[in-house]
Amino acid sequence: MTTVKAAIKVSPRRSVPAASKTIALSTPAYPAGSLLSIAHLAVSDVSTLLAAATRLEKEDTLKRMKRLEGRKVALLFYESSTRTRTSFELAAKSLGAMTTLVSDKSSSIEKGESLKDTGITLRSLGAECIILRHPASGAPFLLARETGLPVLNAGDGTHEHPSQALLDLRTILAHLHGAARANAVTEKSLAGVTVAITGDILHSRVARSNALLLPRLGAKVILCGPTALLPDEAAALGEGIVIERDFEKALEQANVAMMLRIQKERLAGPQIDLENYIARYQLNSERLAACAPRALVMHPGPMIRGLEISSEVADGPQSAIAEQVRHGVAVRMALLTRALEARTAVAGGKA
Ligand code: NCD
Question: How many Å lie between the centroid of ligand 1 and the Cα of residue 84?
């Protein structure tokens, strides 16, 4: 693990220009069909992906199973995951692809094999796309470069979680504008919409990908939390992002209240007084009723009930948390189709 971290040295700030509108997707360094950062997608790409997600979701099951029949997809997970891993796997299987799961707990990774060698091994075994979750920020960039395969970033360190941002966007659009208009995404799709993201912003790749995506579609993003979990510099992530320390003030403006878990596993220095945190930042029924009685409540999971969110709110009528998970399968079907179509094009070009 130390070797991987040392070799990568990709700082999130350098790899993702804030608020960048369009970055060429298939640069020679990163294979076409990859999704390494949400900033690599133009608004038109986001629109194409969401439209594909809806088409695939509606398609006849047997017809859909033919789309990636016989294709091989590897899931390479160096960190625990429930929703992301399962939905990528179900998405691949719904398209007829063969999947194989390699986790750091039961593979040669435990014996010290590097990310590069693991990737090359998977490619030799016929993998045409790798879905990677890794604790080191930037790891998917290294894997894509070293294998030449399309890589889908399923969460890298505290850097990004682009497929989560896409499924969050689909959830927001479906609620605010109805399913029919959740596909045509433009720079104005979220005009007038305020999304308050509250909690451990410092360690959250979900917050980062959402903060990079939503303002490009016209949304105002409020980041909320104590300084230990939300440094002032976070406002520099891009245009359309503001910091509000007072949770109730943030909620009063919010059309969407996105709550985040405190990532204890990444908390190195700062210690949080949990009682104080709950008193100031927990989304509970009283607060929701008083400050945001119509807001959509979201959470990427895993939730710690009783800490950042109360059970009543998590299971309540304003909650879209279960829906977020469902949108994940459709969005990931679109991403896998895009990755493997790009792979076919590359293979065809070489023939
Ligand atoms: C998150 C992650 O792993 O980044 N969950 C997810 O993928 N849906 C958030 C977290 O771990 O708290």
Answer: 8
Whether 164 is in the pocket of ligand 1, judged by its Cβ within 6 Å, is yes
Architecture of domain 162-325: 3-Layer(aba) Sandwich (3.40)
Q: Which tokens go with 289?
A: 């009723």
Q: How far is CA 85 from CA 153, 288, 320, in A?
A: 11, 31, 20
What distances in angstroms separate CA 97 from CA 48, 231, 336, one per listed residue? 22, 43, 10
Q: Does ligand 1 lie within 6 Å of residue 261's CB atom?
A: yes
CA of 206 to the centre of ligand 1 (A): 7
Backbone angles phi, psi at 112, to 5 degrees: 105, 5
Ligand 1 pocket member 138 (CB < 6 A)? no
Superfamily of domain 2-160+328-344: Aspartate/ornithine carbamoyltransferase (3.40.50.1370)
The residue whose C-alpha atom lies closest to atom 11 belonging to ligand 1 is 302
Q: What is the pLDDT of residue 270?
A: 59
Token pair for 69: 């029949």
Between CA 112 and CA 271 the distance in angstroms is 32
pTM for the structure as a whole:
0.91
Domain residue extents for the chain? 2-160+328-344, 162-325
Min mean pLDDT across 62-66, 212-216, 222-226, 347-351 is at: 347-351
pLDDT digits (tens, 9 = 90+) for 100-147: 999 988 788 878 889 999 999 999 999 999 999 999 999 999 999 999
The verdict on the CB of residue 327 being under 6 Å from ligand 1 is no
